[in-house]
Amino acid sequence: MSSPFGxxxxxxxxxxxxxxxxxxxxxxxxxxxxxxxxxxxxxxxKKVRRxxxxxxxxxxxxxDELVREAARAHELGVPAVLLFGIxxxxxxxxxxxxxxxxxxxxxxxxLKRALPEMIVITDVCLCEYTAHGHCGVIKPGDKSGRxxxxxxxxxxxxxxxxxxxxxxDMVAPSDMMDGRVxxxxxxxxxxxxxxxxxxxxxxxxxxxxxxxxxxxxxxTPKFGDRRSYQMDPSNSREAMREVALDIEEGADIVMxxxxxxxxxxxxRVKNEYGYPTAAYSVSGEYSMIKAAAKNGWVNxxxxxxxxLLAMRRAGADIVITYAAAEVAAxxxxx
Length: 334
Ligand SMILES: [Zn+2]
Known about the structure:
Helix content: 25-40%
Low-confidence stretches: none
Structural class: alpha/beta
Bound molecules: zinc ion
């Protein structure tokens, strides 16, 4: 059978790799600053800038500092931030998550006041706000870490609505409860936020690569783990069902998390649904490159750019990365 493509020696692929300009001309995929989202961690207080030990260059920021950090990224062209909050107090009902004057709600208001053009996305989950560190409600006395699905939905919906009321441009539920996108969509619509999009963490896997994040968000479960609600890393067909459910329930953007070890999932999601697709390059991915670079084992910029480009090549339209501001500067200077 003859090949539909050229054959050696008539066809020589190296011809188009001879110069930087030629390589740029035929590049199939590009990473652009327009696609980047920077996650930020808000804490109470003033002038607080607390380095996260396991994530060099990442800080817990009081809202004044957070606005400065966001402004710096915005000047470099980063269009969006994704907010996480670390409350002063935690309880069984995660009441800090939906408090009108909660840490995220305050951060959103200050950000929108200072940077009205910047897209402010809020992470919607309960784990930073529950005393046990799980992503939902647990029956008192139950030490198995079994989160009760349906009672959690109401609290997630309240949280999302309170973010929208504070001025959030988009909400991003990360809890992995069944039915939460519909619960949030219904509540947002009821409260008059029909134009607030939902970016769902549609296929979120129970991953070892979240380790450093838990230092940053102070959200490590006190007992048990998250494997009864986050996905098993073995499963890609199940991931397609999760994504289909979220789309049916009203998700506007679907996310795959983590990214680098799940490029096949990103690719399938994009090919099968064609929805706007986000890849969350998680803390472990970031910190591995940072640590290796610090030891002189990899070139930080090259390794970071290559791994983020891989997410684009797999099909991600949006790339969420802790390196967003650095990457924006590299893209500007390249
Ligand atoms: Zn959570």
